[in-house]
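step 4 of 6: structure.
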Amino acid sequence: MLPRRIYQFLLIYLIGLLLLFAVKYGFGLSDYVIPGPRDVINTLKTVCIRYFSDVVDTFSVAVIGQIISICLAAAVGIIGRRTTWFGSFVKVAAYNVQAYPIVAIAPIIFILFGDGFLSRLLIAAMICYFPILLSVIGIMSEPVEDVEHFYRATGRMRWQLEVKIRAFENLGKLTTVISGSATLAMAGTIVSEFIAANAGIGYSIRIALYQSDLSRILIALFLIGITLSIYQGLLELCGHLVKKGWSGH
Amino acid sequence: MNPIGPKFRMMIIIVCAAVLTTAGLLRADNAAAQENLTYRLKWLFNVSVIGDLYARDAGFFEAVGLRVDVKAGGPERDAIRELELGYADFGVASADQVIRARSKGAPVVVLAQLFQINPLQWIYRADEHTFEHIADFRGKTIGITYGGNDETIMRTILAKAGIQESDVHLFSVRYDFTPFFQRRADIWPVYRNAQGPILADKLNAAGEPVGFFNPADHGVRFVANSVVTSRRALDQQPLIAAKFVRALLKGWEAALDPANAQKALKMLQQYDKDTPFPLMERQLEITRRLIKPAPDVSVGRIDAAAWRQTEEIMLKQHLIPAPVAIADAIFPPGSDD
């Protein structure tokens, strides 16, 4: 699972890079428009360590943001699965929060919380929570009749059991959504860093853009991509292990 | 039964063919008479591009047989890249962009320098600080945009006075001015002509007089916006380049002429609807001083010494690995090369 993720990413990145070089040499473009391989390698040597630490910084914020959004989406999904007035109210509130574009809210967040860790965390959580929420609500609102009927008929059904049954039956879907939301969490953190923070890979990309340095951006994209691929591979592995543990074989 | 007879059908076909042929001929004739060009600006439509828009809207381009599509710039736009990719014929770029591009082999050339004084300056509260001398920066919190022009300029200023980074506190600037309003920074970078009057108004309304620090007053002349094109375009169509620059600079001269101020501002208001007219009037007055600082200075003059200084600054700060011989990239209209 993990090695597959990594080599798939490497393949995609390499194809992208080759395509860029083909355009560069095909149209005779200068290194300013598209950097050449030597320029990219030289930049890699210069910024690799610094950018890697920036990516780790961004990644750590993204992971915490993702955990928060999973907890939030799970709580909202579990409450919102009921067809009561409160359940519907929670759902409406959760959906509305997502209706506002993050780039419009971000400056307010930065004014309130400063340009440090908290703002980045909040934006990362806000960006990645909605897809998780949609899936959780979808899964939690859908009864697994075959199994649930027995517990209902015997009067042993509790809400915890109901949640557990529905989660187990849809573990594959949940794992995919959580794994996919890692990308959104990372993107959210990078967006927040790009807009206003003064740390992380998004901030470094902003500086590279100011200086029209596409080589640095290519290095940043590589480091972001490889980190995400490893993380997503690990999440899928965890999902697989949890399912194996729950099913007892 | 078909209600349209064969004769009538034939007539319709002939009429359509005639209309299409005439339209095609007219279009071809028009294209021959007028050269279609794309001009990519550096920033969004505001007072800093008033002359560019005026040259088009007041018919200066048309008068020399050019039809110019003036396109707004923005943070994600890079005129030099567009020139090389063929999306634009002319553009506006800052000197550091030109020097960086030349350093990476981009065949970009400079045709005119719009701002004689860089509009990128610093604002401060005049009742709390004075920045008459560079030494006044010692111990102060200075706003800079890491990676931006203002960082390069400020580091040059500090180096000039022998001030180390440890002697000041550098504050990372972002899009909004809140940290300056909150006094978290003592001095903040602004575009003197566009943002300067807005911030000054806000602070003056709160009873806080402001001052502006202009690096050029302290010998740091970092060139700002200039008109650029590709070397290939200049070689292939030198007449068009000359026509374009002359019409553009005439447009600028006219837009900055106090006699045309109302007309130019009314034109600008069509593009910049959010800026109140009285504010625009003041912005234009400041822009005039930055583009034509003295009556004998012609609009578009290329300050070769300032270009060389800009290159030296970038070299010193390792923003370029080697000299780019920037003088070789300067081609004012009428120059022989």
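step 5 of 6: annotate
 - Chain B touches chain A through 23 residues (CB under 8 Å).
 - DSSP finds 13 helices and ten strands in chain B.
step 6 of 6: archive
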